[in-house]
Sequence to fold (180 residues):
Amino acid sequence: MAVRKILYASDPKLRTKAKKVKVFGPQLKQLADDMLETMRVANGVGLAGPQIGVLQRIFVAEIPEEEDNPLSGKPFVIVNPEIVKRSDEMEEGQEGCLSIPGWLGEVNRHRSIEIRARTVTGKPIKMKVSGFLARVFQHENDHLNGVLFVDHITDPEKLWRVQTDDDDAFVFEDMNALVV
Ligand code: NI
Fold:
């Protein structure tokens, strides 16, 4: 496994729609393993292909273990996802992004979603996720379409700066320009 470089939001690859994965083989498995390792090293709960410069429809996710959530504490590799159902119920929650270090925001997401996707070996799967994991899946799925969490924020008060220990943290030059 190898840790890949995470691109910042200023990189045009993060604004590009990723292509469907067509080849399921050892290279894809290697990519998925690298993505999981990169995500864990960066203390993230999700990572999408475009964030490491791979414009393919793949993301990984792993949220900390929660008592009443059997899907928590497990790594997921999701390939060619399609959100086939979205709950009417919405929920506001805090989000950050490994490509936008030093910023957090309040984002409205569907409380639960149903997705169709493929596993890393190409097996079709259908999953229903809710709560925090549904938030992560929606955030990562957005990355595959060149969408960032800040795009969902229209109220500048719902996006704020946080301290990071990374001196190279990406800083928006003009926050308002991105809050559209
Ligand atoms: Ni992100």
